[in-house]
Automatic annotation (TrEMBL):
One of its GO terms (molecular function) is nucleic acid binding. The lineage of its organism: Bacteria, Bacillati, Bacillota, Bacilli, Bacillales. This is Integrase catalytic domain-containing protein. Residues 1-132 form the Integrase catalytic domain. It comes from Gemella haemolysans M341. InterPro entries: Integrase_cat-core, RNaseH-like_sf, RNaseH_sf, Transposase_IS3/IS150/IS904. GO terms for biological process: DNA integration. It comes from the Bacteria. SUPFAM superfamilies: Ribonuclease H-like (SSF53098). Signal peptide: none annotated.
Length: 134
């Protein structure tokens, strides 16, 4: 459904932020009746032994894009393109904090209110709730 289930925003990347986001995603998807797959690019964070080990402990399949192939991660590439169009391009943010708050607000909007034709004109959250009760 394209819902953003976990994220971490920081001024610089760190293993702690990546692991914190992973733990949140594990918690959010813990009761899923389906096989869980976590897909990412080949960034350093997703190749950490601690990251891979944690996925294995939870019996989560790790999927990675092929090197230099954005099409393998098209769902996230599409999300970031939409985010940039809707809140970034043409907007000046006066601080890191202001940008971070705008992104957090946008992710909430994207998940809960922004409808998609491919989801039957529902938001990702509405779609998930509807199909969990079927």
């Amino acid at each position: 459904n394209g819902e953003i289930i976990s994220y971490s925003i920081s001024e610089s990347p760190s293993a702690k932020n990546i692991m914190d986001a992973l733990e949140k995603a594990i918690k959010v998807t813990a009761k899923s009746p389906y096989r869980r797959t976590f897909h990412s690019d080949q960034g350093w964070a997703y190749q950490m032994k601690a990251y891979s080990k944690r996925l294995k402990e939870e019996r989560i399949y790790q999927s990675m894009s092929r090197k230099a192939n954005c099409l393998d991660n098209s769902i996230m590439e599409n999300f970031f393109g939409i985010l940039k169009q809707e809140i970034y391009y043409g907007t000046t943010y006066n601080s890191y904090r202001e940008l971070k708050l705008a992104i957090e607000k946008y992710i909430k909007y994207y998940n809960e209110e922004r409808i998609k034709e491919k989801l039957g004109w529902l938001s990702p959250k509405q779609y998930r709730i509807k199909h969990m009760t079927v």
